[in-house]
Amino acid sequence: MSTTADTIRNGVDTAQLYGTLDAIKADPTLATFQFRARNRWIEGAHNRTTIRDFYAANQEDTSRAEEFVVDAGEPAILLGTDTGPNPAEYLLHALAACLTTSLVYVAAARGVHLTEVESTLEGDMDVQGALGLSDEVRNGFERIRVSFRVAGDAPEEKLREVVARAQQRSAVFDIVTNGVPVTVDVATA
Amino acid sequence: MSTTADTIRNGVDTAQLYGTLDAIKADPTLATFQFRARNRWIEGAHNRTTIRDFYAANQEDTSRAEEFVVDAGEPAILLGTDTGPNPAEYLLHALAACLTTSLVYVAAARGVHLTEVESTLEGDMDVQGALGLSDEVRNGFERIRVSFRVAGDAPEEKLREVVARAQQRSAVFDIVTNGVPVTVDVATA
Fold it and tell me: For residue A184, how many C-alpha atoms fall within 13 Å in the half-sphere facing its CB?
């Protein structure tokens, strides 16, 4: 067997993973990241975000060949024309994607070969808040439920441990459950 | 001038907007929404979310002709192959999109014609948290900065009021700044 084949698990190069961890342990300044998004309003509920550059490991990361373009919208009942998922649905996607990637990386590090990871997310919202009809109702989701279905070559207990550990380490899970300070500046033209 | 042209502002049908608000005032049960996302792991940091159905106004909403498909990934430095923006970047997109749509709707309701809405978002993260290298560092963003550039046919003060009001009503701004309870269930196969 080749060394490469041995180190890749769940599509994650575990040798590179451990190398990254060792590099950051030796120089914690490498862990300072900044992610970015640029959004432009198009019309009505249609707006578009471009994502490409970010800061990592003490420099601007220019490794991405192209920018990503992501469109948002609203369904008809919320006065849009379905030009994309709505912002709250994108938030559920961000949470699902982060928990899943964390799960896959944790499994790779622990020697668990996964065969299937699926999740369904539901967020309950009383839109009286966001529509300005009630100050007693919050604007955002009241609660979010995540249901994972996970299969792999480990006993059920170990698979559950991997999911629990992923939850403890997911960036977006932390953001969504604990909140983050956000500042908003405005320039008018 | 036609009535239709009069009621559409910033691409938002304000007659429909006020009709929706009146309908919910008359029957607040119409405000109960549930948004959903389904995610499937593909390989490594690559996973895919599909979004279509949701619950609104006391029924399943089946108005969307097609499902939306959204791919996530990670850049090379985070062991991925750029199969899409990463989950933290999608969270910034969700926040930008929600603030922008709120701003556009508020402006429409207040008679402000917008000509430009752009925003840049930056989120600072020390990845020692998410990588499990430090328990003193949080996993998610330490802070998020949003910079809006807004132009329209209203005085600067009114444009700033519209942005402030959008912030007070944005669902994702509420979620990201205040947090939401999340439950995670696991089924193994």
Answer: 24
